[in-house]
Write a structure and sequence with these properties.
The chain has helices spanning 4-15, 20-27, 31-40, 45-64, 75-105, 115-122, 142-146, 150-153, 166-181, and strands spanning 124-128, 135-139, 187-197, 204-214, 219-232. The protein is α+β, with helices and mostly antiparallel strands and 233 residues long. It folds into two domains: 4-105, no CATH class; 115-232, PAS domain (Beta-Lactamase, 2-Layer Sandwich), CATH 3.30.450.20. It starts with a helix and ends with a strand.
């Protein structure tokens, strides 16, 4: 199964897009939303459907234009491939309907509180501008984990003094300065550990953070995970 980044790169190659923002415009979403797709390795079904429909249109269009395709050697062979794909499509639809019915009728299990449950539940996402440090989008259960509603953080600075522990803020500012001054780095990934203030208790929660930064497009995407047991006053 292709990951989200591979699919996006194929769209860029096919349409000769130069920037990720062109892909975002193609899908009708913001560049920040596209970055979150890549981080979560998940493209929403309605957007995958758009690609599927477009790919199906390419086959008859190529035949009509007289384009020689690699696999089919004749019109009959091409038609048989199309027929096969249509049958597979119907089969997949039937399978999806069956799965939906099973899920609908199957009682939900209570969360077991295991490691994988917490990984899925506690993961937080931030998308923001590197130029001014403004948070432009968030995803995940911020209120449950950190005590903030997404609307409280959106539009604020992710490097703000009222959010990050003073000792950690120095390191954050240093990294930002290095990225802004660099004339070589355009894409980079790095990891940090920061203490962020809980919105309700005022205590600092230690977060493991993975940063994906695109300097050229002025986008920073952060995947955050609280480190269990590390809560300080």
């Amino acid at each position: 199964m292709e990951n989200a980044l591979d699919i996006i790169n194929k769209v860029m190659d096919k349409h000769r897009f130069r920037h990720k923002r062109d892909v975002a415009e193609y899908f009708g979403v913001t560049p920040q939303a596209l970055s979150i797709w890549i981080a979560k390795n998940q493209i929403p079904p309605k957007h995958l459907l758009k690609l599927s429909q477009e790919n199906r249109k390419d086959i008859p269009a190529a035949i009509k234009a007289g384009v020689v395709m690699e696999k089919p050697s004749s019109l009959e062979e091409t038609q048989s491939i199309i027929d096969y794909l249509m049958r597979e499509n119907i089969s997949l639809k039937d399978e999806l309907v069956g799965l939906k019915e099973k899920i609908k009728n199957k009682p939900l299990k209570k969360p077991q509180g295991g490691v994988f449950d917490r990984l899925a539940t506690d993961t937080l996402y931030i998308s923001g501008r590197m130029s001014d440090g403004i948070i432009t989008d968030l995803d995940g259960k911020w209120e449950n984990v950190m005590g903030y509603k997404p609307s409280e953080l959106k539009g604020t600075r992710y490097d703000g003094e009222d959010l990050i522990h003073p000792e950690d803020l120095k390191g954050v500012k240093k990294i930002e300065q290095n990225l802004k001054e660099s004339t070589i780095i355009s894409l980079t990934r790095y990891c940090t550990i920061q203490r962020w203030k809980h919105g309700k208790t005022g205590k600092y929660i230690m977060l493991s953070m993975v940063w994906d930064v695109n300097v050229e497009e002025d986008i920073g995407l952060v995947v955050c995970k609280p480190i269990d047991g590390f809560i300080s006053a």
